[in-house]
What does this fold into?
Amino acid sequence: MNDTPLLRVTGLEKHYPITRGLLKREVGRVRAVDGVDFEVAAGETLGLVGESGCGKSTVATSLLRLEEPTAGEVRFDGEDVTTYDKQRLKRFRRRAQMIFQDPTSSFDPRMSIGESVAEPLLVHGITDRSRRREIVMDLLERVGLSAEDVDRYPHEFSGGQKQRVALARALVVNPQLLVADEPVSALDVSIQSDILNLMNDIQEEFDLAMLFISHDLGVVREVCDRVAVMYLGEIVEVAPTEALFSNPQHPYTTSLLGSIPRPDPTQRGESVTLVGDVPSPSNPPAGCRFHTRCPEVIPPADYAFEQGAWRSVQDLRQRMREGPLDLETVRTAHGESVGDAEGESVAGDEQLKQGLRAEFDIPRQLSDPEGDAVLERALTAEVEGDHEEARDLLDEAFRTPCEQTYPELRETEAGWEAACLLHEDQRQRVERPADD
Ligand SMILES: Nc1ncnc2c1ncn2[C@@H]1O[C@H](COP(=O)(O)OP(=O)(O)OP(=O)(O)O)[C@@H](O)[C@H]1O
It folds into this structure.
């Protein structure tokens, strides 16, 4: 049996330079895709999910070499696509097709549907006009349209119908891989499932492998065999679809699942929502890139914090890194007993510190007394105007292992891969007794 996957992507990177000035001096890089590995077997559908801007589309365009990857290897049927010359790239593009979110923009309004669908055939050397027309008419029927549609024009079709035509055009050259980038998200919800069903049928009929890109986990659950979860240019978890939905191993996956409406409230993930903005891919956080938003970010061994409070302390610490806090606003919002010259109530220092805790959802007293003492010292420094001292105190005491150690994508006890130090911890606990 042939164990080689149809597509194997290893260490894929796509960095966009950030330039300044007339001479376009490089001053930084957007690390849109930053070392991504995955495989897709023949006939399999792999979902690629993640929030907007995490690099999903860039994975697609780089692996198909619609834009050149910065680094990495893309093996298709055993061959490295990144080394292909023009001729071989053309052959590869016939075997690996892509469909996009917006079907309207992918058609020339002056060309009939038949001409558009037949175009790739012409490019690939099928010169007999009636043969082309025959193939196209057959395909139109297979994607749920009518053979007579062949002479109609794009504007005569609805969005859903256009996406059917786009599928016909992708299939016309008999590809082995279809890369579908948000293929239904521009369509009316009522017709999304028709198109998804069609894609499922087509995939079986044509034995297609599919890379299915979507930010919509509900859609991914309907069509994918496995799912890879991306965050800030990296894959953080890869799992069989149902396993991922019922037992996510990475806190980011759990958060993503928590942020979709679900009919069954008993499922894990319901109470967790994603908060905070995605950091910039030009300056990703050190260690685990999700640590700045992770609800399960690991506390240092020296303190026994309740997890929610620890997350809140991390939020304060991150905010402090951006500059001094707006004490006046907090002072006014939390003022009760101390009056200013105009008689308005403003907070005294103690009240202000409690106000700051409240703003960051930090309890009035942390469960760990030593930890609370450090926090109190930092808050005192901040309200006394020594922002640097406050920031440094928090930075020194409350560093998380998640920012110090880069988590590799490794097999978890659940049997699939996730990149999270929580699993490293578990592994070490399991491995240690065996070492004794
Ligand atoms: N040509 C470009 N030049 C500079 N930065 C780019 C370019 N294309 C994409 N990016 C950046 O790369 C990152 C990844 O973008 P990408 O479109 O791949 O994400 P995505 O996950 O597909 O998002 P969406 O779901 O919104 O399409 C983003 O920060 C984006 O701004």
About this structure: The chain is about 40% helix and 20% strand. The longest strand covers residues 25-40. Residues 221 and 241 are 6 Å apart (CA to CA). The pocket of adenosine-5'-triphosphate is lined by residues 16, 30, 32, 50, 52-58, 215, 281 (CB under 6 Å).
